[in-house]
């Protein structure tokens, strides 16, 4: 029996989950990639300028000239993954001093004002790349993802379109929210309780005799209760 699906957030997978009547937990990395790509749309002119420059630097004569001043080669962005854009821009910043020595691309070199914008963008993308790497870790869970997404939204509001808890791309918001709260020891609202009701363990109707606990165990048990109650 299938109780929920884990897959990319594409319309096909959402349609399958809807038809099956189960929750779909979308791939966090896929969702994050869409969010960052949308964020980078407003910076397309600066990115395209560096992309054009790097393509020219990869031509044989220009590459040979550049190699006289640095061992690092220019990189080219891949349209399907934003991380390649980050690596391209970071490499450009790293070898800019050497690029200046290639006269053939002098007119393509970003002006100081644009260069400063690119440097700032690289710093931001470095932070986003760390989130991307963490999302691919096998140790994470939905609560970790939610915490990271909320932190990214606070720093980069434009990403809320894909990363917010109620984003349109989320197929089963009540289910995901319920899991996050359960992992964080927080109480659920009615919609969330309904979304995860089928996962509740069986209740034993027979009255069990309470087990006797020692003083130390009872002390620690009472100490933990107020701590959990303070979690919001």
Please render the helix and strand layout as text.
Blueprint: E1 4-7, H1 11-20, E2 23-26, H2 28-40, H3 44-57, H4 60-67, H5 82-99, H6 112-135, H7 142-155, H8 160-163, H9 173-183, H10 190-195, H11 215-229
Parallel strand pairs: 1-2
Helix pairs in contact: 3-5, 5-6, 7-9
Structural commentary:
This protein is mainly α and 232 residues long. The chain has three domains: 4-38 and 139-195, no CATH class; 43-132, no CATH class; 204-229, no CATH class. The protein contains eleven helices and two strands; from the N terminus they run E-H-E-H-H-H-H-H-H-H-H-H-H. A two-stranded parallel ribbon has the order 1-2. Helix 1 links the parallel strand 1 (4-7) and strand 2. The longest helix is centred in the middle third of the chain and has 24 residues, at 112-135. It is elongated, with a radius of gyration of 25 Å. The model has no long low-confidence stretch (mean pLDDT 88).
């Amino acid at each position: 029996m299938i109780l929920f699906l884990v897959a990319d957030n594409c319309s096909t997978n959402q349609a399958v989950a809807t038809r099956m009547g189960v929750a779909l937990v979308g791939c966090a990395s896929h969702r994050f990639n869409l969010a960052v790509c949308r964020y980078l749309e407003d910076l397309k002119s600066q990115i395209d300028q560096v992309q054009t420059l790097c393509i020219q630097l990869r031509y044989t004569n220009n590459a040979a000239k550049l190699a006289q001043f640095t061992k690092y080669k220019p990189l080219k962005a891949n349209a399907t993954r934003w991380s390649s854009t980050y690596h391209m821009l970071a490499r450009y910043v790293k070898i800019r001093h050497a690029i200046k020595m290639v006269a053939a691309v002098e007119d393509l070199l970003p002006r100081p004002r644009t260069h400063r914008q690119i440097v700032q963008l690289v710093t931001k993308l470095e932070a986003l790349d760390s989130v991307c790497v963490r999302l691919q870790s096998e140790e994470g869970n939905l609560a970790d993802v939610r915490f990271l997404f909320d932190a990214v939204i606070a720093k980069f509001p434009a990403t809320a379109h894909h990363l917010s808890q109620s984003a349109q791309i989320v197929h089963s918001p009540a289910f995901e929210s319920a899991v996050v709260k359960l992992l964080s020891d927080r109480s659920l609202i009615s919609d969330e309780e309904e979304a995860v009701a089928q996962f509740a363990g069986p209740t034993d109707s027979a009255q069990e005799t309470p087990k006797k606990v020692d003083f130390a165990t009872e002390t620690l048990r009472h100490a933990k209760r107020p701590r959990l109650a303070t979690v919001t």
